[in-house]
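Hi there. Long-time user, first ticket. I'm pasting a complex I've been working with (about 605 residues overall). I'd like to know whether the download I got is complete or cut off, because the file seemed smaller than I expected. Thanks.
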Amino acid sequence: MTTATLFPYRTINTSKCNVEVAHVAPLDITVDAGKRRLFSAEPLNGLVEIRYKISLPISEVTPCLPPGSSVESLVNLGVRAVSVKSRFRQYFRAADVVISRVRVGDAGFLDGQVSVVLDCAMCRGKVILEPLVVLDQNLPRGDWSEARAFAKGSILGAMEEWEVIFDAGEPPPGRGIPIRWTSFKVHFSESPDRHSNLFSIEKGPIILLNSDIDGLHQTLHSLAKRGPIARVRDMVYHQIVLQAWTSLIGSTLQAYQRAMTDHGGSTAVYILDELEGWKRQVMLDWVTYLAGNADVPDALESLKQSLVESNGDLMTDVVPSAIQSRFKTSKSFDGMMKEFSDRLQGESHD
Amino acid sequence: MTDSSGVRLKQLSSSCTVPAARSGLVYGRPPESEFIKPEASANFDAFSAKCSALRQEPGNKLKTNSDAHLARLLHESLRHIDRRTLTDPLLWQWMTLALFPEYVAWRWFDGFSLGDLNEREAEGEAEGEHVIKDSAVVHFLGGGSLEGVSRNALARLFWGAEAAWVQGTGKDRYMDVDTVFKFADLFSGVFERLVCLRPDAAIKVMRDIKGRSEESRRSIMVNLNLVLSTTCLESLDMNTYSELVSELISIEKSG
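Hi, the file is complete. Here it is re-exported in full:
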């Protein structure tokens, strides 16, 4: 179950905000059920820096403030870092909030850059980073029907959370596949046919994403919660997820089948132990979905039986179906359909 | 996977199998006992001696009243240890189970000794029931969550004192420790909420509402929590936060 905060005042539609996470070294990114996580496979030392570039249309902010207010002096942009395990909460405020205008006369954008610096010696477990737009001054209380925030510190808008995971090491691939951006023109310099691919799976396993594709990084790293960018992002993610997991599960099932042949008569759990580390974890994570049984040992036995019978349905039918139902890929399709129908409606009105 | 709250005290205290209690064998990664470091040594003599002395004295009120004093002693023993070690839940579970189980039993289990508890648990088990409730086991096994820390018998003492501790060379750097432990409802009301992650804010509200009735304290904490769900506490300076607390108190006063 997810919870949502009900704000007793107008808030900013953050789907129209653009937030880029500009620099995350030495961390890697993983995506688990749509949630972005930063982690390091190696123990971290010293300081970790994560830089945010936040840009929000002023036209979205002004309805939240009294008419005629100077937006840049009333709100601040920042990133809130909260960690229960490390026992701290801290606010990293944008050093400067400036207005940028594309054209003269535009309301323009409120831009800010935030540098989140975390000391590894102070951090443990999960640190949640949440970009915020915050009211920076107390305002006179207006009429309640105006529904405007007036207290200093009120949150006017919250954007998508990222998590930084300390101590986790590399997350098991069964729970999320680590991703890394790289130029395919450099990485696959001897295979030009791969230069325009979106992604590739490397040993580990790890998903390599092609940084040469225009807009791919910006789209996939957009923190939009709603709106067109979020819909395109989810669609692309699901496309990658479906193909990547099909390949990983296929490879795991093949290995399991080979182990079954080598250890005929052994129990399903015993055979599982014969698998290579990541394949064992993929199997553990997916077996209940593949076998349709919530109990792992029972699900393993049932899957083993299906492999013995080997009627070919597993890879062609069961695996794609399990991935789609687990990641609810139809949601992103619905989102895209909504996007198309909105656009078509807009065009017909024009 | 075994839920730590379901793990029986008897098994734990007899072998101090903290890692097994938290095995989380999902991915076959044994948890690391990184708290056992040569540089992380601490001298618990004063704390230990006070615990022993307290156990000899009768009276239930003594237990609550002893919290602030013991918190000071425990904090003095541990405050030089690095923060990553101190935030390791295994450290506190190890301390409650291996170092000071008798204190935990005395403070939270009706004054029974650990031996008594194990005996009672064995008798109960034979009849198919657990004498030691899961809700009480948390005083030994409280982990890294807000609730876990505030209920682990030793972690609560340390982090309560840590919030109140004032850095520097002042006369009494533990001036607010009594405030922190004066009322159990106030302690859990603050330390089981996210506000406790900003120590100055936690101490401020405790100081300001400690003189009010329990009902009033609860009501103010509920309202503070509600306001903080739409407020970025981290971005507030202490003056603004104090005004917020004062306003909540006056709202509560006016009923």
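A couple of notes from our side: Chain B touches chain A through 29 residues (CB under 8 Å). The radius of gyration of chain B is 19 Å.
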